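Retry 2 of 3 after timeout on previous attempt. Resubmitting structure tokens to design endpoint.
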């Protein structure tokens, strides 16, 4: 449960950073709305992303994994279409937003891991 809450907050911070840095991504509302957007985005990532990666495996191999940004952009646009408090202007804005979200998630996720070696 603790891991879920940490991931939710990291996702919320990454989405807020993307909305702050990129003009075409708008997020309205208070912190609870940001958490709701992060929750929906996380659920879509958990349910749809494995299937999308499986079906697009040849494209992922040919692009050396860069097609994953397109998959994330599609999931970001799907999240925006499901929620009123979150808007993405277009596809390339979503690609740039997915890049920002990936970088922030990687940095925050690495900073929050404990120092245990297994």
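Retry 2 succeeded. Sequence:
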């Amino acid at each position: 449960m603790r891991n879920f809450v940490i991931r939710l907050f990291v996702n919320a911070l990454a989405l807020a950073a993307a909305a702050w840095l990129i003009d075409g991504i708008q997020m309205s509302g208070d912190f609870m709305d940001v958490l709701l957007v992060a929750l929906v985005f996380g659920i879509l990532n958990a349910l749809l992303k494995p299937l999308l990666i499986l079906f697009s495996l040849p494209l992922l191999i040919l692009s050396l994994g860069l097609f994953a940004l397109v998959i994330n952009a599609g999931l970001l646009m799907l999240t925006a279409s499901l929620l009123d408090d979150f808007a993405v202007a277009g596809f390339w804005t979503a690609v740039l937003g997915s890049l920002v979200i990936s970088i922030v998630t990687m940095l925050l996720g690495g900073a929050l891991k404990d120092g245990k070696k297994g």
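Attempt log closed. The longest strand covers residues 25-27.
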